[in-house]
């Protein structure tokens, strides 16, 4: 076994989950810092129109990455279950099918995106002054899509085998490269041309493709056991059962991201109705919430990988322990961040707002109402991570729709006649309580233990029962 890989089916559950999740958390932090620094260069030196352009383009990118998140997560679970069962032939079939599928889909998306970029931006109502910037930026991003998709699926494959450290180091390489190249390509330096906003997107293209190539070279040098050699190219022929699992299990997981994103868009429209001061306060607070949720998201990724391997190995008692430890870690890690934020709220918010700003008081008020609800939502994330690792992916999507679209948004809108803007802030705890309650009920009474990612190929394995 590689030094970077951990056997997720043996050893102390707590130590294994913590050591596996820590690099995932680091990767999430790097991505957020990278995006923030790139936005700083564009906003400060290219102007508001350019920043608006990147915001519009990033909505499209978030949609594309949201879908691929679900598909690549399905790949992680399939690989994890195969590795847990010590079925390396099945693991290679998953890798080969995933590689072919992602290459075909990403190339088609890139071609269509480059051609349709102006029409996509027009449909979004991109402001006229930002449109030229957005076209230049988004077209380069579409060219980068195949590299982004393959990079993502390779990282998720590694995590499925128990290796979260290698993806972290290459994410670090990608982030540092992107940050260094952004000002060089935006403004031009030495042999590099001045590219303006297209330079920011080109930096991302170079960083992603370069990190992907470096990762593949590294894995080849290390003789990574799932890297297909010249005599194993037959695995690239898509396996129909695996392909169905990638699509029909992956899409519901991707849609979970889109449910969260779309509800956030509606929520900001409700906030906008209360004026720019409230919107500014909400915007600053929501930036901090992104960091608060990172431990739970990292734990969710770790729980999914661990549960997938243990399900493959048939270690169901260990699955329950992984879930309990994941919930405990969420309370400790997310709870510590929330406590720190509330104790130092004036200092932390002061990084974004002047001390005497009216928005400061509003932001502190919002944080005291909303931030603790992410502890509850973190438990939901861990429970979702467990059940989806068996193949039960529809129930978490339905629960999110109920919590976000049928609870949080109606509460924020309808109760505003009685509570004013307070209804918006209290809708977060209300939605979190609903999602946690439904997730606990499904975890306790649902049929997720009978779910399967893919129909077994051998009759001895029995018939699969797909849980909803």
Structural overview:
With 468 residues, the chain is mostly helical. It folds into two domains: 13-238, no CATH class; 254-461, no CATH class. 78% of the residues lie in helices and 0% in strands. The chain contains 16 helices and no strands. It has helices spanning 13-45, 48-84, 88-123, 131-160, 165-187, 197-221, 240-272, 276-292, 294-312, 316-343, 345-349, 358-370, 373-388, 394-414, 416-419, 422-445. Helix 1 packs across helix 9. The longest helix is centred in the first third of the chain and has 37 residues, at 48-84. The protein is globular and about 65 Å long. The model is unreliable at 457-468 (pLDDT under 50).
Mean pLDDT: 88
Compute the number of helices: 16
Number of beta strands: 0
Spans of at least 5 consecutive residues whose pLDDT stays below 50 are: 457-468
In short:
The protein is mainly α.
What are the salient characteristics of this protein?
single chain; 468 residues; mainly alpha; MdtK-like; transmembrane
